[in-house]
Amino acid sequence: MTRRERKILASLTHLVRSERSSESLTAVLPVVDDRLAVRILDLAVRIGETMLVAGANASEVTTTIVRVAGIYGLDPVHVDVTYNSITAAHHRSGAAHPVTLLRVVRGSSPDHSRLQRLQALVVSIGGGLDLDAATESYRSIRRTPFRYRPSVVIGSQALLAVGVAVMFGGNWLVMVLAFVAAALAALTQFGLARAQVPYFFSQIAGAFVLTVIAALSPLLRATGWDAALELRPTVIVASGVVLMLAGLTVVGAAQDAIDGFALTAMGRILELMTHTLGVVLGILAGLETARVLGLAMAPPSEALPLGPVPLQFLGAALIAVSVAIFNGAGARVIVVSAALSLVAWLVYLLAAQVGFEVAAASGLGAFAGSFVGTLVAYRLHVPSVAITTAAILPMVPGAAVFRGLLSIVESGDSSPLLLGGFTILAGAGIIGVSLAVGASLGIYLGQPVRASLGGVARARARLLR
User: Fold this and answer.
1) Do the Cβ atoms of 391 and 371 come closer than 8 Å?
2) CA distances from 202 to 72, 192, 274 (A)
3) E strand or H helix at 99, and its extent?
4) Can you point out the beta strands (E) in 49-98?
5) At 128, phi and psi to the nearest 5?
């Protein structure tokens, strides 16, 4: 074989085979003994645990744990996040045993203010905060109580119901009754939580209280008030259904499923289904009680019409503000959540005007709110999950859920009415899935755009220097 032929053969070989890595097989590793490794891993896992409880998704928790551990010289770290536990392990080459920590995650309690402070702590750690100072800062964040008192939380939950009533164009009496019903339901749930009653039964009790109050509301027509004559009990229950579903982690469950955290996603989905079932059972119990008392409500033949467009935007903003408050958000997150709810609702209205079905329009609205929210969250240093959750809640099909359940309860021997009730519930479920998918897609498409904008901003800042 000639020299030229050997060169051609070598060139063809390079095209087919991958070249051996030219990187050094050794690396400079920081000196981290087992005692220090345990301290680093403990801090990283504790931060991740608190983030998961406060509302972060599993992917964000995993990334944070790996990042914090790597900053302090612990690399590689393997993290396994499930619905109720976090396991992290570090094994140095040549070491006899790995350093492994396991922490059990007990329940979830959304606290977006705490989540924001934890994200700021991680940024400070990346900026050079030493381990002792970081540990003390974490303990301070962990001991910080919830931002708002229980009375404020209950008041914000009642305000959410008023927001729903405003969206449906309810009169002043409907708004007052929605506020009272939601406040009593929230107070009932708060009392049951203090008694350590499982949240499933708390959902049943809250939905039962809402439905009974709505069933009793037509009695006010005996007063002769004009507002009482135009009373729509369905709006009162619909506002309560949105309240009952406001705390469920629909977006988080969808994100975990898409990210490949199957156990965490299944745990959240099962929790979501269980708590939704609690609302359904509570409404069914309330409707049956009302029927026995002779106060049965006739199922509406058509979907509840929304009020004037300005009232729809006002109601959407009220809902977003309420959700942000009872999730513990600060003033900045509250304002951004209200603005994003207007963006999401505007896209929803435009999509519906063009001809999209309700489920598709809801998904587009959720996508717009979460996409813009992801970009805004980076600029304002606020958790994206906080503003995304508040932005999509006005599109939750609370009225459809109640209408479907009412049709089933009052169907009797009418097969068409029974079938219609299940059809309406199936449509409400499709809308819920559409909201989760749209919000998740907005977050995923927003993250690379956010990263690109951040790179451009950093490059511009270097040029200005």
Assistant:
1) no
2) 43, 6, 12
3) strand 99-104
4) 78-81, 85-90
5) 115, 10
